[in-house]
Amino acid sequence: MNALLTSAVAGLTAGGTYALLGVCAVFTYRLVAVVNFTGAAIGTAGTFVLIALFEAGFPIWPSVLAGIAAGTATGVAVGYVMTRWFGEASASTKAAVTVALLVGLIAVGLRLTGGQHPHNMPELFPGSAFRLAGVEVTIASVLTIGLAVLFTILSDLFLNRTKIGLNLRALADRPMAAELLGVRVQLLSLLVWGMTGAFTTFALMIIAPQRSPNFMTLSLLVVPALAAALIGVFRSFWWTLAGGIALGIVEGLASSIDSVSQYRSAIPFLVVLAVLLWSQREARWDEAR
Amino acid sequence: MSRLVVSNLSINRAELPVVTSVDLVAESGAISVVLGANGAGKTTLLEGLSGIIPVAGGTIAIDGRELQKARPGARSREGLAHVEQGRTVFRQLTTEENLRVSLHPGADIAEAYALFPELVQRRAVKASLLSGGEQQMLVIARALLTRPKVLLIDEMSAGLAPVIVTRLMTAVRKLADDGLAVVLVEQFAALALSIGNRAYVMRRGRVVHDGDCARLRQSPDELHRLYLGGAESAVPA
């Protein structure tokens, strides 16, 4: 029993990251109507700037800031491509473009970071925060979940209480109508891409030491992130948050069961499949009638 | 006094000319009515003026400032407002939130409610739940809050009951009387001519008539000919 609890708690760090990446995916989808497959790759780019600077002997916290700035810039660059050339494209076209950009980012990232070459990733927040039922809960777990909750609350407040948030909601609904009213559509879109880039980068910096920190592995964290976003039906920040954390816990539990631990990376795919089937149940029912 | 001057304007869609060599003027206090059969190029003309689609040639100027290369947002900030056809409310926002999106410095939401008091009691209702007439009022009121010099309105009567259309036409006339320059694209020719000052009739992307609204209203046969082809009369205003 204690082993199971230990495994579940161990999954919290990953869960917090999935939740934050998922909430960022929902934020991007709701405001600029893009299912963004590059989310984790953007954060990975920033994370590897931190690694490069740290390995070159720079102090850690200035390197963290430089990494976040690089993640933000990468997000803005991807956003610029999407708004400049694909602003009026369909949702499926936009999603396909982000898949192409993901492949491009991974290719360039692997080339620049030496592929599978091991890196010295600094642990930003080592140690234990507290004990829960006899199990150590790491500071990294508390931080990633805290960051995900903070981003969720801030997103809600920002969208519902500020003029920029109101303009973003209008932009998400009818981009051209918003632009015709003088809303600075391109600037606001880039703001969304930059904000999600910054938060994603920081989350990946926290989780990277616990994963094999190569460009491909971190970039593909977009899969559980989109699974979490799907649990929130790409609308609800809070359901996405809960979905991401639950996904991490389930993955943690699976790792402690020998017969399923080797398949635990398939869990997000099963969740995606289950949610899609569940969402189609009414159509199936109607068809059957 | 503001003045929109459109000279020799041409607009293509998918490489094909849809609007060709159009000249048009709209002045403060007046309504320029643009008429024509379906496919004449009226909506394309307005979309080119507001920057939704790029122009292939010619100039668009408000008070001498050329805008043909500016993005739609920049044209809005220069005083050009476009009420698109199809009642493009922000569906997930309330009436009041729709108005707040367009609120430019110096504008007051009270002006929108003064123009359309019907919207006051619907201020907290989601725009998607408003009636067609209320949605049309909302998009016109929303455009007003951008502090425009020139207001382009496309097919505002489509799908609305005659009593609502009359209500909207009265409001548009009031906006012109208050000093706005209005360009009104409309299918209901008689109603539009009754509130307009200057009439343009388009056929196959060209202006085939430019004249006084009152004169054209008194000559339904001529209007009919202009719509369907045959006698082309470029009557100077």
Automatic annotation (TrEMBL), chain A:
InterPro entries: ABC_transp_permease, BCAA_transport_permease. GO terms for cellular component: plasma membrane. One of its GO terms (molecular function) is transmembrane transporter activity. Keywords: Amino-acid transport, Cell membrane, Membrane, Transmembrane, Transmembrane helix, Transport. It is found in: Cell membrane. Belongs to the binding-protein-dependent transport system permease family. LivHM subfamily. This is Branched-chain amino acid transport system permease. It comes from Mesorhizobium plurifarium.
From TrEMBL, chain B:
Keywords: Amino-acid transport, ATP-binding, Nucleotide-binding, Transport. It comes from the Bacteria. The keyword Hydrolase does not apply. InterPro entries: AAA+_ATPase, ABC_transporter-like_ATP-bd, ABC_transporter-like_CS, BCAA_Transport_ATP-bd_LivF, P-loop_NTPase. One of its GO terms (biological process) is L-amino acid transport. Residues 4-229 form the ABC transporter domain. GO terms for molecular function: ATP binding; ATP hydrolysis activity; branched-chain amino acid transmembrane transporter activity. The keyword ATP-binding applies. Belongs to the ABC transporter superfamily. This is High-affinity branched-chain amino acid transport ATP-binding protein LIVF. It comes from Mesorhizobium plurifarium. The lineage of its organism: Bacteria, Pseudomonadati, Pseudomonadota, Alphaproteobacteria, Hyphomicrobiales.
